[in-house]
Each structure stands twice: as structure tokens, then as C-alpha cells.
Design goal:
Layout (H helix, E strand, L loop, with lengths): L1 H6 L3 H6 L15 H32 L17 H30 L10 E8 L2 E5 L45 H15 L20 H4 L4 H4 L4 E4 L4 E7 L4 E5 L4 E5 L5 E5 L9 E4 H9 L4 E4 L9 E3 L8 E6 L2 E5 L6 H9 L4 E12 L11 E7 L1 H4 L25
Parallel strand pairs: 1-4, 3-14
Antiparallel strand pairs: 1-2, 4-7, 5-6, 5-13, 8-13, 9-13, 10-11, 11-12, 13-14
Bound molecules: copper (II) ion (CU).
Copper (II) ion binds next to loops.
């Protein structure tokens, strides 16, 4: 299995090998079991061959070493046809078996039929230097066209979110093509920086998560300020289609715990499918000691899920212009706010603030495995797995349509 073998040597993977520092980290993807079997098979196959070859080498070194007084001459040989056929055929058979076995596992997450499950949801992740943007479909479960950028030779101005065209500096000019190049580029640069950093095609109704136009929260679901650096949320047990795109250079989307990894290439939309295993830990109430173990011993991160129902939490709004949030506080100072990472220092502060338990979710690593630029090391994200109870809470309730059938997550994977 190429991806894991390649990944095993890279620094990001070594960091991501949480829990067990000597082996693969825990798998929480339904397709991951057969993938790990290939990894283990190749590991032991190559180990046995390595040990065998080295042993013969050492044996020959000793057996045919230089000794004084030895007079017999070396044997001259033209080779051995039967032996050569053997050492060609055996590796060929091994490679063919590995190739067919790998293809089956690869197809299982690249072209899985679970994408056709009525409960399947979609997520679009767009890489940029040096962050991941996470775009949710909303109740329509449609993503639509993104990463379409206007050119100075376009005959019409691009469309704005309200359906009007971007012409406010040049109301009498039908499009950038009617301006000198320099002016056209400046106008379009402004459009991309201010109105549309992700190249969303506002004229495509599929990019609109609020077709009824009634819900402000829903309408702003995928505004750039919210998409950038956002946590990936996947509903436990439901099939998830992850679509991938890039705003600038090639990135590489890697979820070590979910056994998927794919290059994110500008101009292409990659697709892959995951469904969490039944034993994937969902959100729950943790004591401070349990969280300390998660961070210090298991080397996972944990995200605080604080909302209106959390005991000892309060609602805080710094001022009218800024959005409010739920938090734990001490003497009016925020100790921990909703949807933020819990550190060891936070745990001490929570204890001092009289909090002894809180709802949290394990935050799995999302890393870029491409050396995409000088800020590459910061290009990490987080993924959490939420159950249906949490998916009914804001803001998560805006992300996906509710499941349509009871059998959520029970569709079999191909090849399993
Ligand atoms: Cu990157």
C-alpha cells in the first residue's frame, strides 16, 4: 500500500502516531482494516526478506573469507537458468498480488459506493497557503462550483452574493475585457480579496446553503471568514464524501486516524469516502483527569463542546459588534470557550474555576503532507466526530441535512 508506506517515513506521520509510538495509530475508518492488513503483510514480508538476505551475506563473508595457505581456484559459472527463472517469477507474483490487493483497498475509499447512500453527506475542503477551508453543504447537501476565478478578458463582471454583478467601480463598463489590462486586474484582485477568496460561483444555486433566504446563520454558513481554519465535523456512522480543491499550490490532505490521504491539486476536485467505525469515540462528558490522560498519555487533542446546556457555563458577548459565545469563566475572565482546544494549562484553570467535568470531543489531526511552502508546518487542522444528538445543536445543525433513514451507517463497503 503505497500511501501508508510512503507516509510512515514522513515527520508529520511520526507526530500523528499517537497512542502507540511504535506502530500505526488507531484506525477509526470502516475501510481502514483491510488497509492496515496490507501494511502489516508488507512489513513482515520485507522484514523476513531483509533478515534472510543479510544472514546469507554474513554467512558467505565468513565462509569464503581469506585464509593463508588456501590454494584451490574459484569456480567459473555461466549462471543457472532455473535459478534465474525462480528469482524473476517469485517477485513478479508477489508484486501482482500486492497490486491487485492494493487496488481493492484503494477503490474502497476513492470510488466507494457509500457515496450513493441516501444518508451520505458531502464536505468540500479547499487548501490554501497555509490553512484549510472547510465548506459544508447545508440542508441541500449540494456543494456547487468553487475555485472559479475571473480573467481580465472576461466580457462580463463576476456575480456577487446578492446576484448583482461586480461593477460598482465601473457601472458603464460591461466587463473587465473593456478596460486596460492593468485596471481590469486591479478590479478583479479586489473582487477576489474582498468578495470571493474561494472563487465561489455565486450564480450557481448549489453553492447557496439557504435557498429559502430565511435563515441568516445558514446564509453565512460558508462565508470566507467562517470557512478558513474551521474544524472538520463528520457525523458518526454516516458516509462522508470529502471533496478536495486548492486555491494556490499542491497540498496533501491526510487524516492519519481515518486512513485517507490524497493530493489536493489546483484545477481538480478530488473525491474520497469515509465512514467512521462503530467504536470511534464520540463526544461525551469527560472529567478533568480523563482529559489530562487524553492529552498527556494518548497524545490526542480534545475540543471543548460548551453550549447553553453545559453546567457552570455562561454566555459572553464582548461587545455588540462581536459574536457571543458560551464559556467557562473565573472572576469574569474567560477560562475556556466553546469549540476551542483544551491544553494542560486550561485543565488547571478549570479546576481553579470549580469546573470538574465538561463535554468534549477528541480532535483528530488533519495534516498537509506536501512541502507546500515556508509556512507549511502551520498547515494543520482538526477533525471531530459528532453523534446525531450533537448534530442537532447549533452550529452543527446547519452543516448537513438530517439522516433520511434509520439505517444510518449500515451500508456495507465494497470488498469488505
Ligand atoms: Cu499544504
Amino acid at each position: 500500500m503505497n500511501s501508508a508506506a510512503h507516509a510512515a517515513g514522513s515527520p508529520a506521520t511520526l507526530v500523528a502516531m499517537s497512542g502507540n509510538d511504535w506502530w500505526l495509530n488507531t484506525n477509526y475508518a470502516a475501510h481502514g482494516g483491510p488497509m492496515d492488513q496490507i501494511f502489516v503483510f508488507i512489513f513482515w514480508l520485507t522484514t523476513v526478506i531483509l533478515v534472510g538476505v543479510q544472514a546469507v551475506l554474513v554467512w558467505f563473508l565468513i565462509k569464503y573469507r581469506h585464509r593463508k595457505g588456501r590454494t584451490e581456484k574459484g569456480v567459473y559459472t555461466h549462471g543457472n537458468a532455473r535459478l534465474e527463472i525462480m528469482w524473476t517469477l517469485i517477485p513478479a507474483v508477489i508484486l501482482i498480488v500486492l497490486a491487485l490487493w492494493t487496488k481493492r483497498v484503494w477503490d474502497n475509499y476513492r470510488y466507494s459506493p457509500i457515496g450513493n447512500d441516501p444518508n451520505a453527506v458531502k464536505i468540500l475542503v479547499i487548501g490554501e497557503q497555509f490553512k484549510w477551508n472547510v465548506i459544508y453543504p447545508g440542508p441541500t447537501n449540494k456543494i456547487g462550483r468553487y475555485l472559479l476565478y475571473p480573467k481580465p478578458t472576461d466580457l462580463k463582471w463576476p456575480t456577487l452574493p446578492d446576484g448583482k454583478s461586480f461593477d460598482y467601480e465601473f457601472p458603464k463598463v460591461p466587463g473587465p475585457a473593456y478596460l486596460p489590462e492593468e485596471q481590469a486586474r486591479q478590479a478583479l484582485d479586489k473582487f477576489l480579496a474582498v468578495n470571493n477568496p474561494l472563487g465561489r460561483d455565486f450564480s450557481d444555486p448549489d453553492t447557496n446553503p439557504d435557498p429559502t433566504g430565511k435563515d441568516d446563520e445558514l446564509a453565512s454558513l460558508n462565508n470566507y471568514g467562517k470557512t478558513v481554519g474551521r474544524v472538520i465535523v463528520i457525523p458518526k456512522g454516516r458516509p462522508v464524501e470529502i471533496q478536495l480543491g486548492s486555491r494556490d499550490v499542491i497540498h496533501d490532505f491526510f487524516l492519519p486516524n481515518f486512513r485517507v490521504k490524497l493530493d489536493v491539486v489546483p484545477g481538480m476536485r478530488g473525491r474520497m469516502y469515509i465512514r467512521t467505525t462503530d467504536d470511534c469515540p464520540g463526544p461525551r462528558e469527560y472529567t478533568l483527569e480523563e482529559l489530562r490522560k487524553v492529552i498527556q498519555h494518548d497524545h490526542y487533542d480534545a475540543l471543548a463542546l460548551i453550549n447553553k446546556d453545559t453546567p457552570k457555563a455562561d454566555y459572553y458577548r464582548p461587545n455588540r459588534r462581536k459574536p457571543g459565545y458560551y464559556r467557562f469563566s473565573k472572576d469574569g475572565q474567560t477560562v475556556l470557550r466553546e469549540n476551542s482546544l483544551i491544553t494542560l494549562a486550561t485543565l488547571d484553570e478549570l479546576k481553579a474555576a470549580g469546573v470538574d467535568k465538561l463535554p468534549a470531543a477528541i480532535a483528530y489531526d488533519l495534516v498537509c503532507e506536501e512541502l507546500c511552502g515556508i509556512g507549511h508546518a502551520t498547515m494543520q487542522g482538526k477533525l471531530i466526530v459528532l453523534d446525531e444528538a450533537w448534530m442537532k445543536e447549533a452550529p452543527y445543525k446547519y452543516y448537513f441535512p438530517p439522516p433520511v433513514t434509520e439505517a444510518a451507517g449500515k451500508v456495507a463497503m465494497a470488498g469488505n
